[in-house]
Amino acid sequence: MRFVDEYRDPVLAEKLVADIRRRVTRPWVIMEICGGQTHTLMRYGIDELLPAQVELAHGPGCPVCVTPLEIIDKAVEIAARPGVIFVSYGDMLRVPGSRTDLFQVKAEGGDVRIAYSPMEAVAIARRNPDRAVVFFAVGFETTAPANAMAVWQAKLEGLRNFSLLVSHVLVPPAIRLLLDSPLNRVQGFIAPGHVCAVMGYTEYEELAARYRIPFVVGGFEPLDLLEAIRMLVIQLEEGRADVENQYVRSVTRAGNVPARNRTLDVFEVADRKWRGIGEIADSGYRLRPEFAAFDAEKVFGVSATHADEPPECIAAQVLQGLRKPVDCPMFGNRCTPECPMGAPMVSSEGACAAYHRYRHFHTEVAA
Questions:
Q1: How many domains does the chain have?
Q2: 124-128, 323-327, 355-359, range with greatest mean pLDDT
Q3: What domain range includes position 218?
């Protein structure tokens, strides 16, 4: 595909790497937020091409990775109930809860289905008026407009058998938490292009001004990321802390205003727990009171629960950019994509899965 190949040109990549090498004079730590960006960096070995002074840290940029155990447990409980059709994106089915996962529910006879859009779940509810249809609404700001539209349409049609199990999280509050931590090492951020395509990047301007730290909105192809890193290195070397947009072909400063408006018609900002990090104030969405009839937690009365991560799993430190996946003693042995201990390994966008796939680790699962 010619359009994609334009952003994978090895000659241009070499020139960008050479320019980064020429400009960098001291060590810098840069974090990419999005898991899709992490996989591009690993797949094309970009982290290994960069000069030693530029270290890449991998942030909590995967919705699957940060969905808390408690929400997975609620999904399992609802999906196992008679008369329920539970609809989800495919990558959520293998995410381990505290006891089991949605794949196991499906294997035991639960009606768990994979969809590529929440509107598919609305269509299922329309065709099955005698069944309760629940869509697992997981994601960052990127997927919120589609989920909001699904609820809006269900209310418009009077589909009382449709509901959402909501686990939406917002990126800027998580960045704020990282920057407030005394353990923070990050000096510049590659902001997530897909999120900014919806939300714009004005919130990142506030973060840049408050913390005196630069942001560059980046795309997902190799040249996108190399250019974003180059732009960050220039800012860091010059002592600037601005927000710049590398991903101009998809992102504007204001974002997609109609999509944002529809999202806020249906959702309101709320505190959310992040897997491996804990509760972050004002870091997620919940359904507004006028849409409470479509809130699966209320419809099914699932109670609040608490679940602990495996104590030996260092996913929390990986998600905060404090350690690399290979620092984990379980990595590639007790924890693999086929037998994951933590969400960053089970998710196709998780940092642990990226290292396992693209750094060619082939260790066997420990007996």
A1: 1
A2: 124-128
A3: 2-63+182-245
In angstroms, the CA 82 to CA 75 distance is: 14
Residues 346 and 233: their CA atoms lie apart, in Å, by: 32
Count CB-CB contacts under 10 A for residue 211: 18
Tens of pLDDT, residue by residue over 41-93, are: 999 999 999 999 999 998 877 788 888 889 999 999 999 999 999 999 988 99
- Is 251:142 a contact under the CB 8 Å cutoff? no
Q: Say what the pLDDT of residue 3 is.
A: 58
Place of tokens 């609809």: 87
DSSP output for 100-141: --HHHHHHTT-EEEE-SSHHHHHHHHHH-TTSEEEEEEEESG
- Closest listed residue to residue 142, CA positions, set 322, 288, 349: 349
Is residue 299 domain-resident?
no
Residue whose pair of structure tokens reads 């679940």 in the numeric block: 307
Q: Which of the two residues, 63 and 303, has the higher pLDDT score?
A: 63
Asked whether residue 228 is domain-assigned, the answer is yes
Average pLDDT over residues 158-174: 96
* SS3 state of residue 189: strand
Q: Give the count of alpha carbons within 13 A of 42, CB side only.
A: 25
Cα 85 from Cα 94, distance rounded (Å):
17
In a domain, 119, yes or no: no
For residues 93 and 112, give the distance between their C-alpha atoms in angstroms, rounded to a whole number.
9
Distance CA 199, CA 193 (A): 10
Is the CB of residue 350 less than 8 Å from the CB of residue 62?
A: yes
Query: What CATH number did the domain enclosing 12 receive?
Result: 3.40.50.11750
Flag whether 319 is in a domain: no
Which phi and psi angles does 55 have, rounded to 5°? -105, 135
pLDDT at 343 over 80: no
In 3D space, the residue among 225, 199, 223 whose CA is nearest the CA of residue 58 turns out to be 225
Q: Do residues 126 and 158 make contact, with C-beta atoms less than 8 angstroms apart?
A: no
Tell me which amino acid residue 53 is: Q
Who has greater pLDDT, 332 or 282? 282
What is the average pLDDT across 237-262?
Answer: 97
Contact by Cβ (8 Å): 35, 65:
yes
pLDDT band at 367 (very low <50, low <70, confident <90, very high): very low
